Amino acid sequence: DGGITQSPKYLFRKEGQNVTLSCEQNLNHDAMYWYRQDPGQGLRLIYYSQIVNDFQKGDIAEGYSVSREKKESFPLTVTSAQKNPTAFYLCASSISVSQPQHFGDGTRLSIL
Amino acid sequence: SQQGEEDPQALSIQEGENATMNCSYKTSINNLQWYRQNSGRGLVHLILIRSNEREKHSGRLRVTLDTSKKSSSLLITASRAADTASYFCATVVRGSTLGRLYFGRGTQLTVWP
Question: What is d(CA A45, CA A110) in angstroms, rounded to the nearest whole number?
Fold first, then answer.
């Protein structure tokens, strides 16, 4: 079945550590997105990519980095510069921008 | 902010009743989308309505769009306990070359058996 796979489901970060969240899709979608969701909040866009080897900052990109070397993969690195990383992270993809997005089941990141 | 804002923030009803959620936005849009999120899961797309459309149906879901009031509503008829979830509206700003979605904070719907 086609879909988006995020891993791991739960992740713990130590102070000063970088961690990478995985996002893989087999839907052949060009566009991919990373969102952050805090309790009781909507989704805030971190980064998005319209095509391979290209990506743009969203509303809250500071302290995060991404790469888009393959169409299927869009990993997100939470760097030590992100001082408040505890949140639920969601990856999504769509055929093209402005079209309905398909979401993974998220990674919950916590601080040790 | 160009976000949609849902109203009410929380809604609690009995099975069989209808549930209505509203979304207001600030700028002209290309389309508006409704999503559902079960607790601890990703979002699932429900319906997309374009700016030149006024109403769309999908099963027990009915979405309306009033561009003059910059508002949309999602109606779930004959609700079931399984409809318990958060519901989000998201807008695509008209004329944007980037076409990204702007999400609201959601309405938490609880349907009691």
Answer: 19
Query: Are residues B48 and A100, on separate chains, in Cβ contact within 8 Å?
Result: yes
Closest-CA residue to B8 (of B91, B110, B81, B80): B110
User: DSSP characters for A18-73?
Assistant: -EEEEEEE-S--SEEEEEEE-TT--EEEEEEEEETTEEEE-SS-TTEEE--SBTTB
* The two three-digit tokens of residue A83, written as one number: 């001082």
pLDDT tens digits, B83-101: 999 999 999 988 776 778 9
pLDDT, one tens digit per residue, over A3-51 is: 999 999 999 988 889 999 999 999 999 999 999 999 877 899 999 999 9
Residue of chain A minimizing CA distance to B29:
A98
- Cβ of residue A27 closer than 8 Å to a chain B Cβ: no
Task: Report CB contact under 8 Å: A98, B30.
Answer: yes
| Interface touch B105/A92, C-beta < 8 Å | no
Out of B33, B42, B96, the one facing A104 most closely (by C-beta) is: B42
